[in-house]
Design brief:
The complex is a heterodimer of chains A (462) and B (441). Chain A contains 16 helices and two strands. With 462 residues, chain A is an all-alpha fold. In chain A, strands 1-2 form a two-stranded antiparallel sheet. The relative contact order of chain A is 0.09. Chain B has 441 residues and is mainly alpha-helical. Chain B folds into three domains: 60 residues; 143 residues, no CATH class; 218 residues, MetI-like (MetI-like fold, Orthogonal Bundle), CATH 1.10.3720. In chain B, helix 11 packs antiparallel against helix 16 and helix 13 packs across helix 14. Chain B starts with a helix and ends with a helix. In chain B, 42% of the residues are buried. The chains are: A mainly alpha (462), B mainly alpha (441). At the A-B interface, helix 2, helix 6, helix 8, helix 9 and helix 10 of A face helix 2, helix 11, helix 12, helix 13 and helix 14 of B.
Amino acid sequence: MPPSLILVVLLALTAFAYYLGRVRAVAVAGGPRQISRLHSRPTYYGAFTALWCVLPALLVYSLWLAFEPTLVTHLVVAALPSDLGDLPKDQLTLVVNNIRNLVQGNIVSGEVNASLQAAAEHYRSLQATTHAALGVVTIGLACGGLALGWSRISPALRARNQVEIVARVFLVASSSLAIFTTIGIVLSVLFESIRFFRIVPVSDFLFGLSWSPQMAIRADQVGSSGAFGAVPLFAGTLLISGIAMLVAVPIGLMSAIYLSEYAGKRFRSVAKPLLEILAGIPTVVYGFFAALIVAPWVRQAGVAAGLDVASESALAAGLVMGIMIIPFVSSLSDDVINAVPQAMRDGSYALGATQAETIRRVVIPAALPGIVGGILLAVSRAIGETMIVVMAAGLSANLTANPLQAVTTVTVQIVTLLVGDQEFDSPKTLAAFALGLVLFVVTLILNVIALHVVRRYREQYE
Amino acid sequence: MSDGIGGAFRARASSPPRRTIDVVNATLARRHAAERRFRLYGLAAIITGLAFLALLFVSTVAKGYGAFQQVYVAIDVFFDPEVLAPDGKRDPDTLNAADYGAIIKRALKAQFPDVQARQELRQLSALVSTGAAFDLRDRVRGEPSVIGTTERVWLPADDEVDTLLKGGADRNAPEAERSLADRQLAWVDRWSAEGRLEKRFNTRFFTGGDSGEPELAGIWGAVVGSFYMLLVTLLLSFPLGVAAAVYLEEFAPKNRWTDVIEVNINNLAAVPSIVFGLLGLAVFINFFGLPRSAPLVGGLVLTLMTLPTIIIASRAALQSVPPSIREAALGIGASQMQMVAHHVLPLALPGMLTGAIIGMARALGETAPLLMIGMVAFIVDIPRQITDPATALPVQIYLWADRPERAFAERTAAAILVLLLFLIVMNALAVILRKRFERRW
């Protein structure tokens, strides 16, 4: 029985359990007119029975499926003929992968011999057995739970309280998921990074000036010793983000000022959503725009001005990233400017200041912490942005401050290192996780500071 | 500006007694000019932003609309029974395995009898798409009685011909720099003089999977992959997000733990998407052994990414339900859970759905984390379940943008238009939902 079918049967049983529980509750109470004798409303008895039916069964089902592949693989490996079973560990993994592919009917690397075929057959039969067992156990448990829940129904049973406890546990678990996600991110990035730092010292990684992650596959290969100095990547990231901020901050801030201080209601209601469309466009679209439209244009303009412009210049990527970030800066600043109390403006007008003077000398200074917080959030966004730079920035790790040259960024390198073949024992793959760790820590610090600043600022004027 | 109010005060302090009003009057024109300038900067900033938006849309449409049409060439094909069914049998297996490419080559040879040299012949048959053979196969399988007859069939032209006819290639460039040789240009010109070339609606683009040949490549596989992924994301992230929001808003005691959760959620919303990809690779693929390139894993990663968005939107929706509703429910004896489930949730649901749709729209456009979990493979088949290898629409755009053929640039832009259309529809849905059900208390 395939697992998906078991799940369907389980759900059907649950619905049935709900019905049975309800009917029984009414019967126990002594007919529909006597419902008031029950502690809870009949639906709660239905839900009570359904939960007894589904929860234990679902728990076993998911645990079983989580551990089944490991168990089956273990059994298959143990039963492999000695010529395959005694292989070293990494080759054994390859064999196991091949067997799995055979089972799933995928393309297999290397030739398929009889013992591999037999192992796949063994795997398949074991899987069939465990699935059958899973079906029996799950549905048995579901029926047992149903019977237990059903038999416990009595007018005195506090069904609502029990159902509500389960619901509450679900709510708490859902809200803790955010914590688990963060822990998951930290652990997954940290573990691989630690493995990386065992091979490459932290100081070499953080302060090294040369980056060429190609490792020699054979010992006699030339020119690919692997250098993991990430400074050129950090510099490239900062260069592109800097260009982006140079575009986004003036445009975003001035738009926010105009929208909140000058624009009429109608203009604002049209221009603000239009501007925010820029934030809703997928980054891959910006990447396409940068690579196929802006980059050639920047290059042509540069050549016309007699400058040497790389075809994947930092300028093109930074410009487009800046466009993407405009709405972040503008809507955050807009909120902040709107939160400045009107009394402060009125005071300034009363002294005879013009509107522009009021904005520049009163409103902006008052809103500055919030604006800075918004800009920090935008910087963190720019540093973590991936698709624009993957598509429009280069791959070569140049340590330069010239925006007309090609530079590479942290995110570009993560993508190039992890797309394609991965070996989780080579520093090349692990380096991506170390870069991810740096990225996560830096953006986290920026976010914490920015959110803190914005929050403090809001409290100030509330 | 420096001579504005400050200047006026300084002027008063200086020795010859001057009235403030004189100073003000003297600088007023300049101050007003500064005011106008400042205002103009603001307007210019907005116009620049909007101009970028317009440029983005216009250039994408200009580049992409051509891909909705494909050049077809009419060829008089003789369905030779010798080639198609040499032993006289016309069962599906024989017809599937027959050499349709040879039939096209013969038809081309018959049309241009003076083409004899091998290289020339190869150039000639390169003008017709390699996918034309599949079209012929479908034609014969659909109607085996055409075997033995000659019929004028419209077959897809090669992408180079397609680009040329759409004006994307420069025919005056020196031959070495062109992808079509002089000879090939002459043949194409003859076809077009004979009325054998026609632009038709490019159905393949909407129904096909990926392909190495631009004229055969379609987005359907990617659309299906994206659909499965969003399905997984929606089914997981909406209930979980709503539950989390309900707990934090309605039940959670104000203590350190809930504070930590809150800060956490706000931070997660700002974590770069690529980091979620790393998480997916390390946890879902390496630790739990889920299949690479599967929409299931993509959906799980996107769930974790969209959860903060949905939680934040759902909390805002819950906050907008007035306390009097809660008090009334509690007052007539509802439990806290009943109060939430029966009264607060239904009132907050439209706001939550709006948030969910916006979260889904964002998830639909997300690319970077999918690259990490191997959804960048070249996949021709349309995925049939959530564990099949698949790509997603934005990933397909990324893949196509990298290909060197000019015709792919056109198709990339067209795929972007489709993606933007989906996003516009989703966002419009969210706006309508908000307008229709929003209640001001």
